[in-house]
Write a structure and sequence with these properties.
Radius of gyration: 17 Å
Number of helices: 5
CATH class: Mainly Alpha
Bound molecules: MU-OXO-diiron
Low-confidence stretches: none
CATH architecture: Up-down Bundle
CATH superfamily: Ferritin, core subunit, four-helix bundle
Number of domains: 1
Distance between the termini: 23 Å
CATH topology: Ferritin
Mean pLDDT: 96
Oligomer: single chain
Number of strands: 0
Shape: elongated
Largest sheet: none
Order of helices and strands: HHHHH
Helix content: over 70%
Strand content: under 5%
Length: 170
């Protein structure tokens, strides 16, 4: 693989881990507010991010390239409200989507079709990521100040679990 491509994927591994760090932090913020369902939702999201990083790491290993794990930046630790946290998460996912698109562009410029093909999984995943985070933000915006609705939404969001995809079904 071209060294530039390997470096860019290594950077993205770091960014996926950073994403997980942000959602872990959001989870603890929501836990402080007593929103145990949303905490669980954010923990499942963190596990997804770890999986996103892991999948890239294994791709580099399989192609005989060197993985370089770098220091992870510290995340924010508090937000103005649960809605602000989810809006921040959506902004973050849009950044991730832009980065994945840039990686695909680079792979195509380098005629590295194996990497471009591998990255298609992330292109599709980002559609889901933006939809799920954006959907949660929409729900929070809709319920406004209603404590009852917040209670119900929190309960519903607590049902989310991360299931590691089976090999070949990722
Ligand atoms: Fe790994 Fe949420 O993007």
């Amino acid at each position: 693989m071209d060294a530039k491509m390997v470096e860019a994927i290594n950077d993205q591994i770091n960014f996926e881990l950073y994403s997980g760090y942000i959602y872990y932090s959001m989870g603890t913020y929501l836990s402080d507010l007593g929103l145990s369902g949303m905490t669980q939702w954010m923990i499942a999201q963190t596990q997804e991010e770890m999986f996103h990083a892991h999948k890239m790491l294994m791709f580099l290993c399989e192609r005989g390239e060197r993985v370089e794990l770098k220091a992870i930046d510290g995340p924010a630790t508090s937000w103005e409200s649960p809605l602000a946290a989810f809006e921040n998460a959506l902004e973050h996912e849009k950044i991730v989507t832009g980065r994945i698109n840039d990686l695909v562009d680079m792979a195509l410029e380098l005629k590295d079709h194996a990497t471009a093909n591998f990255l298609q999984w992330y292109v599709a995943e980002q559609v889901e990521e933006e939809a799920s985070v954006g959907g949660a933000a929409d729900n929070l915006r809709l319920i406004g100040e209603s404590g009852n609705a917040l209670f119900m939404l929190d309960k519903e969001m607590g049902a989310r679990v991360f299931t590691m995809p089976a090999a070949g079904e990722e």
